[in-house]
Amino acid sequence: MVEPSEPELIRTPVERLPPPERTATGPWPLIALVALIGALLFGGYWFLRASRSAPAETAPAVVAPLPEPSAKPSTPLGSSPFPADVPALEASDGFVRAWVPRLSQHPRVMAWLATDGLIRNFVTVVTNIVEGRTPAARVPVLKPTGPFQIVERGGRVYVDDRSYARYDALAAGFASLDATAAAQLYATLKPRIEEAHAELGGAGSFDATLERAIAQLLATPISERPMQVEPSGIGYRAVDARVDGLNGAQKQLLRMGPSNAARVRAHLRDLAIALGIPASRLPAVPPT
Fold first, then answer.
1. Structure pTM?
2. For residue 262, what are the contacts with CB-CB under 8 A and spacing of at least 6?
3. According to the model, what pLDDT value does residue 135 have?
């Protein structure tokens, strides 16, 4: 089988469709808070539907329950904002670029600063996650380097650990974000974020949308077992039927590999707490 120049591991039919008109344009969407919430998710390989019939030894499908939308938070998310006047939405990119280094100066976090439409794209990415769609197509600047690799063991094909290693720097970049500063930046940009949210057709406060996006990713079950795959078109798809029950954003997180996914998930919980989301409203860590 010839591996394409840009193979795609496990991609859903929905993810092959062009983005809806409501989606904002521009390459990378995350203001630092999610400089990898969306993050999560960076170009390269995606998850397709699991095979129609799983092998006999595959356990019955176990789908992680997705959290229901939260009621409007009793208090706005985000800690005390930075003492700064945020410019109009159309002129906000420079402001965001100037403040992001307070969160982290990791090279991967800084990589997206040259892109445009940061606040609008952040809102779009978070909305994509809530809708169960992977945001990876909007973060091409962060896609991993190196080819996707597989390994054969006992006549079966698995994702090679070297494929996961391509995401080490991205996971490290996300973990480097200062949670308290991220919450402050979110609070500082909140007026413009709400403007972009309304402009893109969002209803209610964006806080509820952000909390649901975080909860969906935290609910992703991460397995330490090697991922068995099989050829599918020009790429591969997961054999385990349980993967098929997850949404696109959750599958995107899984493709970073168990160690990186667990690292991102742990720091995402720290960010949620810093934002003011009570631990009681966050999903428990699902079993592996």
1. 0.75
2. 222
3. 65
